[in-house]
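Repro:
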Amino acid sequence: MSDDKRPESPMERALRLKKAAQAARPAPPAAKGRKPEGGPGARSKPWMAR
């Protein structure tokens, strides 16, 4: 990780930070292929509801 390369673009920086964040915390249950807790009536992705 040397700093002699060209400065990273905002896109690359965002992608790197996103990967670091995903590596730091466990993935949400919905991304692991399990059924969401609470049965079929529960929303697995409440943040996507409008």
